[in-house]
C-alpha cells in the first residue's frame, strides 16, 4: 500500500473521474488505473463502481476512505516532524474548531510562539470530532473542541464557557422587542448547528421536525458575513460576534419565553505529551492576574 496509491484513491473519490484525477495529479490515466487496481488487489475489495460519466465509491470504498485520509495525514505529520527536528527542540501541533480559534485562541498561541521560539508550532482548523480523532491518532498534540474527550491517557479541561445568543443585522431585525420560540420557524434562519455538539441538537429542537432551512454553512466564523449583510438570523457564541456587536453591524435579539444553554469549549491533550503540557502550562501562566 503506497503513499501514491492512497493519495490517488483519495483524489479519485473526490473527482469521481479517472481522466480528471490523472490531470490533477499530473500522471497518465493508466497510472491512476494501475494504482487503484493494485490497491483493490491488496485490500481484496472493490473500492469503486462505474457510473454514467465516472465512478462512485462502493460501501467498502467509503469505509476505507476514512482510513486512507488518516494514513496520509499521519505520514505527512511524521515527515514534517522529522524535518523540523533539525532546527527545533520540539514540535507542537494544535487543532481547533474555527469559532474557538477566531474568538479566543489567537492571543494564546501568539504568546506561546513569542516565548518558545525553540518549539515549532503548527495550527490546524477543523470540526470537533475530526480534531479529537486526530488527537487520538497523534496527528495533533492539543485539541480545542465543543465536544469533551473522555478516554484513558488523555486530559480534558474546560477552556472557556460562552453564551449562545440570537443575532441579526439591525437593518433587518423585525423583533426589536424580542422573539418567542414559536416565531423562530418564520425566520430566514442561517443554519450552522453541527459544530456545537449538544447545543446543535438544542438549536434544531427549536424548529419543527424536518424544517427546511434556506441557507446552511459548515463554518460559524464565515456565517458572520451573511448576518452583517442582512441575509437572516442565527444563533452564535457571543464572543464570536463581539466585534460586530461593538461596531453596530449586528444586534442581539432578546428571547422572550425560552433560554439557551451555555457553549463549553474543551481543551484535550495527551498526558504524556511534553510539548502539549508545556503549552498548557504557558497558557495557564498567561491567564493568571499580574
Describe the model.
With about 290 residues, the protein is of the alpha/beta class. The protein has helices at about 5-15, 20-25, 30-45, 60-85, 100-115, 130-135, 200-205, 220-230, 240-245, 275-285; strands at about 50, 55, 90-95, 120-125, 140-145, 155-170, 190, 215, 235, 250-255, 260-270. It folds into 3 domains: about 5-75, Winged helix-like DNA-binding domain superfamily/Winged helix DNA-binding domain (Arc Repressor Mutant, subunit A, Orthogonal Bundle), CATH 1.10.10.10; about 80-160 and about 265-285, 3-Layer(aba) Sandwich (D-Maltodextrin-Binding Protein, domain 2); about 160-265, 3-Layer(aba) Sandwich (D-Maltodextrin-Binding Protein, domain 2), CATH 3.40.190. About 45% of the residues lie in helices and about 20% in strands. The strands form 3 sheets. Strands 3, 4, 5, 6, 9, 10 and 11 form a 7-stranded mixed beta sheet that branches. A two-stranded antiparallel ribbon has the order 1-2. The protein is globular, with a radius of gyration of 23 Å.
Amino acid at each position: 500500500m503506497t503513499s501514491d496509491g492512497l493519495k490517488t484513491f483519495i483524489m479519485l473519490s473526490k473527482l469521481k473521474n479517472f481522466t480528471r484525477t490523472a490531470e490533477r495529479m499530473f500522471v497518465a490515466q493508466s497510472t491512476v488505473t494501475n494504482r487503484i487496481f493494485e490497491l483493490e488487489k491488496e485490500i481484496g475489495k472493490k473500492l469503486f463502481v462505474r457510473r454514467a460519466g465516472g465512478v462512485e465509491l462502493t460501501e467498502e470504498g467509503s469505509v476505507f476512505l476514512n482510513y486512507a485520509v488518516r494514513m496520509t495525514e499521519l505520514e505527512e505529520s511524521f515527515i514534517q516532524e522529522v524535518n523540523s527536528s533539525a532546527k527545533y527542540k520540539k514540535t507542537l501541533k494544535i487543532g481547533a474548531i474555527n469559532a474557538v480559534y477566531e474568538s479566543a485562541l489567537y492571543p494564546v498561541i501568539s504568546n506561546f510562539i513569542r516565548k518558545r521560539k525553540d518549539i515549532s508550532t503548527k495550527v490546524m482548523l477543523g470540526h470537533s470530532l475530526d480534531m479529537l480523532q486526530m488527537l487520538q491518532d497523534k496527528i495533533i498534540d492539543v485539541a480545542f473542541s465543543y465536544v469533551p474527550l473522555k478516554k484513558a491517557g488523555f486530559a480534558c479541561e474546560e477552556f472557556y464557557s460562552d453564551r449562545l445568543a440570537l443575532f441579526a443585522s439591525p437593518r433587518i431585525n423585525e423583533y426589536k422587542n424580542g422573539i418567542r420560540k414559536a416565531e423562530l420557524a418564520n425566520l430566514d434562519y442561517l443554519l450552522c448547528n453541527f459544530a456545537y455538539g449538544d447545543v446543535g441538537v438544542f438549536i434544531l429542537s427549536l424548529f419543527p421536525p424536518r424544517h427546511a432551512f434556506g441557507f446552511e454553512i459548515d463554518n460559524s466564523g464565515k456565517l458572520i458575513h451573511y448576518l452583517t449583510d442582512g441575509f437572516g438570523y442565527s444563533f452564535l457564541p457571543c464572543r464570536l460576534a463581539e466585534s460586530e456587536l461593538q461596531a453596530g453591524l449586528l444586534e442581539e435579539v432578546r428571547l422572550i419565553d425560552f433560554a439557551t444553554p451555555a457553549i463549553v469549549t474543551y481543551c484535550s491533550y495527551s498526558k504524556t505529551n511534553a510539548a502539549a503540557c508545556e503549552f498548557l502550562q504557558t497558557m495557564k501562566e498567561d491567564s493568571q492576574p499580574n
